[in-house]
Amino acid sequence: MSQLSNQQIERYYFEQFRLHYPMPKGELVYTDMPDVIIRGDTVIGIEIASLYITSGADPASEQVQRTRRRQTLVRAQKLHSAAGGRCIELSVDFQPNQPILEVDPIARALADLAKRIDRLPSGQVSPTLFKHIPQLRFVYNNAKQYGDAQWRSVQCYCLPFLSIERLRELVQQKNQKAKKYQPCDVYWLLLVVDFMDRSQDQELWWPAEERLCESPFERILLYKPQFAQVVEVAK
After folding, report:
1. What are the residue ranges of helices labelled H in 45-124?
2. Of 49, 67, 178, 198, which alpha carbon lies 20 to 30 A from 187's?
3. What percent of the chain has pLDDT over 90?
4. Which are the contacts of 24, defined by CB distance < 8 A and separation ≥ 6?
5. Predicted TM-score (pTM) of this structure
6. Which residue ranges make up each domain of the chain?
């Protein structure tokens, strides 16, 4: 199945948003720069973006770490199998405050751990056995052998508060981009927080004392589709 384009994703989110927020009447046009234009008595241009907790350029971000966790597990399982290990399944919770910077060393350490436990009965692995691997928080060994055994990441998360500094950073980026938008009477910025994506999911609230810098956007709206939750950011 082909991956959805950014425009398709933005359109999907906006169609949901229209159900949850009163929109002015007018002709709806999906376009670019901005992503949506509503041509009514007032021409409104709407820019849409996903609000991640941290920038994807940060190697410690969830966007980067979830890929490296998967790569680590795949690499470790292959190493374990190549060394003649039994076809057990491991479920691993990685330590969020110990980001994976290099996959191979951790994969080798995890494969070595698997070799030491793959004849033990099913159950939680004692943390003393992997205290030398700070990137691991929890390991469960399923000792039953499977022809298609899969090692899995089973991350535990706490819902963080709204990442205000990241929001400020993203708004600044959009402020610069707005200089090249198609002419409209006013502009809105719609920032989506997808509950299903752990690199985005965060509390939607705006502190009464907080204000953003000057912006070309008449409204800056935070939107969590799965909860039909819309919060307007005070400027």
Report:
1. 62-82, 103-117
2. 198
3. 80
4. 38, 40, 41, 42, 44
5. 0.74
6. 6-53+160-232, 62-153
